[in-house]
From TrEMBL:
SUPFAM superfamilies: Sm-like ribonucleoproteins. The chain crosses the membrane at residues 35-58, 94-114, 158-178, 184-201. It comes from the Bacteria. This is Mechanosensitive ion channel protein MscS. It comes from Sphingobacterium puteale. It is found in: Membrane. Coiled coil: none annotated. GO terms for biological process: cellular response to osmotic stress. GO terms for cellular component: plasma membrane. Keywords: Membrane, Transmembrane, Transmembrane helix. GO terms for molecular function: mechanosensitive monoatomic ion channel activity. Residues 203-271 form the Mechanosensitive ion channel MscS domain.
């Protein structure tokens, strides 16, 4: 009963205001129809000025309060509220709801106009609520991005899914308001068009499923270095959205691929290498086969001067001497018994050099192996890991190692295989012509 009296009191007050303005226009000599229009326009202008003043006050009060909280606290969530303009959307939503409640009372004398305006304001309330919720969702996204547990997760994909669901709900309610039908009847009618909707939103559905599986399987994170030669991808993942993944290649170009390609196509992820802390060196020196031979005693003695190799040579000399002595191999041929070869000592030197290199990771696989001979000679492959994964550091370390080995290989009386150059062919032809 008390609420009813308050409602009647509000209607009485609004009717008195309307009647007062209407009487004022009629005393000025305006016809009744023009007096009605003047009253409507006057009330509308006065109401607009009132709403503008309220909007200014609400926004400034909210902004001042949030700004003070943001300055006094060390947390970031209040800063994100300001950055995403949540206070602006909240003030607009409050004013829209206030307008929706007061405007029918102010324009009580215009039932047709009031019904149209009320329907428009109902739609406006829906859109204001959407923008407010969307700002809050963006704030939550920014907060999750700063969290260690969600920093490398596809937060944007989850946000877009919620946004799509929110748009669908707002759209359903808007259609229900415009048509005057229940939202459930609209949803039932959509069931017949589900096949068309599946076709229209095919990429969105595939992207949504892919985002969930990528996140659940932890196959790709934001910041990972991935490689997909089929799509020209070789760089860091910048963003994982609902429909696409954005990658920045090493040449600073941006490549965008559909999210579901991370499931349908294969790709290489270098995250394991980065987390291990070592980047693999897998490169071979091709030794010319004709330069491989046994070493003489004098040559072995000269190689003992190499500090990294001296302990290995002394150990091998004892082993070889014991072996040959027990089997009485004799000295008729160097093939009889065991002998040191230049490629064997060079392989031992490369291994010792790598083990004493401060830039090589000693806790990961480290070996120097001889691959099957081919038309380019005998590949002597270095398989090891650098201590850092940065590209520049990796390339510098590998270049330093091979610079040294290419210069040191001559001391082992070995030659690196290379195809004949034009100068070699000219010298050969000149020699033949001279002879």
């Amino acid at each position: 009963m008390k609420n009813l009296d308050m409602l009647n009191f509000s209607e009485h007050q609004s009717s008195s205001i309307y009647q007062y303005i209407f009487d004022l226009f009629t005393t000025l000599g305006l016809p009744e129809q023009q007096a009605h229009m003047g009253t409507a326009v006057g009330l509308l202008l006065a109401f607009a000025l009132l709403l503008y003043a309220l909007d200014y006050l609400i926004r400034n009060i909210l902004y001042s309060a949030l700004n003070k909280i943001a300055r006094r606290t060390s947390t970031q969530w209040d800063d994100f509220l300001l950055a995403n303009k949540v206070h602006v959307q909240l003030s607009r939503t409050i004013l829209t709801l206030l307008t929706r409640q007061l405007l029918p009372v102010v324009f009580l004398g215009f039932p047709v106009l009031t019904a149209t305006i009320v329907k428009f304001l109902d739609l406006l309330v829906l859109f204001m609520v959407y923008h407010l919720v969307n700002s809050l969702l963006k704030t939550c996204r920014d907060i999750f991005r700063t969290s260690k547990g969600f920093k490398d997760k596809p937060i944007d994909s989850y946000l877009q899914v919620v946004q799509i669901f929110l748009i669908f709900v707002i759209g359903t309610l808007a259609v229900s308001l415009l048509t005057g039908n229940s939202p459930w009847s609209f949803l039932v009618s959509l069931g017949a068009a589900s096949a068309i909707l599946m076709l229209v939103f095919k990429d969105t559905i595939l992207g949504f499923v892919a985002s969930i599986q990528v996140s659940a399987n932890d196959s790709v994170r934001v910041g990972d270095w991935i490689e997909m030669p089929k799509y020209g991808v070789d760089g860091d993942v910048l963003q994982i959205n609902l429909n696409n993944v954005k990658i920045q290649n090493w040449d600073k170009t941006i490549v965008t691929i559909p999210t579901y390609t991370l499931l349908s196509d294969s790709f290489k992820n270098y995250r394991g290498m980065q987390e291990t802390g070592g980047r693999r060196i897998k490169r071979a020196l091709n030794i010319k086969m004709s330069s491989v031979r046994y070493l003489s005693t004098e040559e072995i003695t000269a190689l003992k001067k190499i500090h990294l190799l001296a302990p290995y040579i002394e150990k091998r000399e004892r082993e070889i001497a014991d072996y040959n002595k027990t089997r009485d191999t004799g000295s008729s041929s160097p093939v009889n018994g065991r002998r040191m070869t230049n490629i064997g000592l060079f392989r031992a030197y490369v291994l010792a050099y790598a083990k004493h290199n401060p830039n090589i990771h000693q806790e990961l696989t480290l070996l120097v192996r001889q691959l099957a001979p081919n038309e380019y000679g005998i590949p002597l492959e270095l398989y090891m890991f650098t201590k850092g994964t940065q590209w520049v550091y990796f390339e510098d370390t590998m270049a330093d190692i091979f610079d040294h080995l290419l210069a040191a290989i001559k001391h082992f009386h070995l030659q690196v295989f290379e195809l004949p150059a034009s100068d070699d062919l000219r010298m050969l032809m000149a020699a033949r012509n001279f002879s």
